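Backbone-to-sequence.
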């Protein structure tokens, strides 16, 4: 499969990455719902969903059609214990039909079209910002009960925010794990969470993710230095409360590239997209971010582990370094100082 340059992929275009997997564009928004009146009437999630879907379809300059499965609203279970100013529900909205933002087809669409690409990215960013500004703070009236909506873009979908984060981190931190030729500290490791394990497994062999399959898939983004695949044991607070995610079905992938440029391009194209498998209707709305510490998960050993390792190495060389013991234990029961107690 010929892999097109990542720099020529518009934010509204689908990118095939091999093994039947594609990166499908989307706009994801996190929703938080508050009461804006003194009503104590129970929340109806279905009515809230219908009100938001109607708003997106009828009240915007460009009508947006959102299927019900792409809008998730769940009320909090402990509403009676919450204060009046606390949120009563949360959820997420995914807008996948972005065809109205696509540029016109161009047979000569290569790196030469850099100005057009920048214009398209700016157009997409401005539209997304206007949508967030339009929805954030809006009021919903559900049968006389008023609610206020708070809307934000997830940090993992905000590439500019992620880039600003690592630039500030390496500007003010004295340590780093990667240096460019000019001596500037830069990240090289990205982290993906919430991906189906079976999509990275060897067919008819195992349902667990395979290092070989995962390496083959992500090597299209650039040369890989290190790779780690494990079960995603932290799927998120919302999924833990709902119980929808079964342990072992999702995986966490950590990829360390040899070049900062490959890391940068990969993270940019992974942000704001979902992963889809050919022949499957499931879309994985993963989280993408960068890693600021050493790549190896167990690189930072505890002091006790380091001490035991040094002792074993010294014993192998023919010497012995005793473990730390309390002073009384070293003196022995006969020579230990007696403890003093108040009469």
């Amino acid at each position: 499969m010929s892999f097109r340059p990542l720099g020529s992929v518009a934010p509204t275009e689908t990118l095939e990455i091999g093994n039947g997997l594609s990166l499908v564009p989307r706009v994801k928004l996190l929703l938080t719902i508050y009461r804006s009146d003194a009503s104590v009437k129970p929340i109806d999630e279905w009515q809230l969903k219908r009100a938001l879907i109607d708003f997106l379809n009828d009240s915007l300059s460009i009508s947006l059609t959102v299927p019900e499965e792409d809008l998730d609203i769940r009320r909090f279970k402990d509403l009676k214990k919450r204060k009046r100013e606390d949120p009563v529900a949360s959820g997420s909205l995914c807008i996948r039909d972005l065809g109205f933002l696509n540029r016109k087809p161009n047979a000569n669409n290569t790196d030469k079209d850099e100005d057009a690409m920048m214009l398209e990215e700016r157009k997409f960013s401005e539209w997304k910002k206007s949508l967030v500004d339009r929805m954030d703070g809006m009021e919903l009236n559900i049968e006389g009960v008023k609610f206020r909506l708070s809307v934000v873009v997830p940090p993992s979908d905000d590439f500019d925010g992620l880039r600003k984060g690592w630039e500030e981190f390496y500007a003010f931190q004295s340590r780093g794990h990667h240096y460019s030729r000019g001596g500037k500290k830069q990240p090289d490791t990205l982290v993906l969470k919430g991906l189906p394990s079976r999509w990275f497994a060897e067919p008819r062999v195992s349902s667990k993710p395979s290092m070989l399959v995962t390496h083959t898939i992500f090597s299209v983004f650039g040369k890989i230095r290190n790779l780690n695949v494990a079960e995603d044991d932290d799927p998120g607070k919302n999924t833990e409360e709902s119980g929808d995610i079964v342990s072992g079905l999702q995986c966490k992938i950590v990829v360390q590239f040899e070049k900062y440029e490959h890391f940068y391009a990969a993270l940019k194209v992974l942000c704001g997209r979902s992963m889809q498998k050919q022949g499957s209707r499931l879309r994985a709305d993963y989280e993408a971010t960068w890693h600021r510490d050493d790549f190896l998960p167990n690189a930072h050993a505890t002091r006790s582990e380091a001490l035991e390792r040094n002792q074993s190495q010294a014993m192998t060389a023919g010497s012995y370094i005793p473990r730390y013991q309390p002073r009384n234990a070293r003196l022995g029961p006969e020579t230990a100082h007696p403890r003093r107690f108040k009469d």
